[in-house]
């Protein structure tokens, strides 16, 4: 049985990390993995990123701050893509491990956003300016000055270079605006974490998945609620998931709190959620 005190400590540490400035993106992602494996220690994952960073540093022929973006991208692609084998395939979208950093570091496979976390965290350790870019439908990295000279690379495909036109086509293909002035803006850590957790929630609510995966969706929602910025609608989702997993009183209370929160701006929604709370309480009889 899981030790509830350990679970509380992990959640407390996650809440602390995501409120630090700067946010330690790698540690936050590794703490997500502890929701699946309570024995998980973030230390080995952080050490592996350090090891990969040392391998990148050994291939640089100039100080990181003097390395041209194209050269930096080539070294990262060589070490992380060609040699370490980080990449992805369509089948990885159906595997929860593809959204958990410790598994991505072990398997060398993952979703684009997790592979981009590897690139950005390795780059940060070396001193290379690598930042995530949250394109609609796909996550890539920028290397260099986002307001000046930079290149785009796709870690999902081993670090293949992309042009700005390529990025615009990816955005358009996913239903986004290719002319969005913020299309290539660096993704902030909290936005990255929320997108990862959204991916996990989407994986867990797939109708083809087993009903017990509601527990996975629940912890993803609860970690999202610990972020300093998150959608208020997650409160309703948490209440519904508590009911689904058998905590009728806790779920009803969460639903009522959400109804109180939105009551002043959407009375109809609040009434609907209060009915859901009453139905949850009735299931105790």
TrEMBL record:
<comment type="similarity">
    <text>Belongs to the UPF0162 family.</text>
</comment>
<dbReference type="Pfam" id="PF13369">
    <property type="entry name" value="Transglut_core2"/>
</dbReference>
<protein>
    <submittedName>
        <fullName>Transglutaminase-like domain-containing protein</fullName>
    </submittedName>
</protein>
<feature type="domain" description="Protein SirB1 N-terminal">
    <location>
        <begin position="47"/>
        <end position="198"/>
    </location>
</feature>
<dbReference type="Pfam" id="PF13371">
    <property type="entry name" value="TPR_9"/>
</dbReference>
<dbReference type="InterPro" id="IPR032698">
    <property type="entry name" value="SirB1_N"/>
</dbReference>
């Amino acid at each position: 049985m899981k030790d509830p005190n350990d679970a509380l400590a992990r959640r407390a540490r996650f809440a602390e990390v995501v409120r630090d400035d700067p946010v330690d993106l790698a540690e936050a992602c590794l703490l997500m993995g502890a929701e699946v494996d309570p024995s998980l220690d973030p230390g080995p994952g952080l050490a592996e990123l350090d090891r990969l960073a040392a391998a990148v540093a050994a291939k640089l022929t100039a100080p990181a701050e003097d390395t041209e973006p194209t050269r930096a991208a080539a070294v990262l692609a060589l070490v992380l893509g060609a040699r370490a084998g980080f990449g992805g395939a369509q089948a990885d979208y159906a595997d929860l491990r593809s959204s958990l950093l410790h598994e991505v570091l072990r398997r060398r496979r993952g979703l684009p956003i997790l592979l981009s976390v590897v690139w950005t965290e390795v780059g940060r350790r070396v001193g290379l300016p690598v930042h995530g870019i949250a394109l609609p439908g796909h996550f890539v990295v920028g290397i260099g000055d986002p307001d000046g000279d930079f290149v785009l690379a796709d870690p999902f495909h081993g670090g293949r270079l992309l042009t700005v036109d390529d990025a615009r086509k990816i955005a358009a293909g996913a239903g986004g605006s290719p002319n969005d002035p913020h299309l290539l803006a660096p993704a902030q850590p909290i936005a990255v974490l929320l997108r990862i957790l959204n991916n996990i929630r989407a994986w867990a609510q797939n109708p083809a998945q087993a009903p017990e995966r509601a527990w996975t969706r629940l912890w993803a929602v609860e970690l999202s609620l610990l972020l300093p910025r998150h959608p208020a609608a997650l409160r309703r989702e948490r209440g519904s998931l508590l009911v689904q997993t058998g905590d009728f009183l806790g779920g009803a209370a969460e639903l009522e709190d959400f109804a109180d929160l939105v009551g002043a701006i959407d009375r109809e929604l609040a009434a609907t959620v209060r009915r859901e709370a009453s139905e949850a309480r009735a299931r105790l009889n």
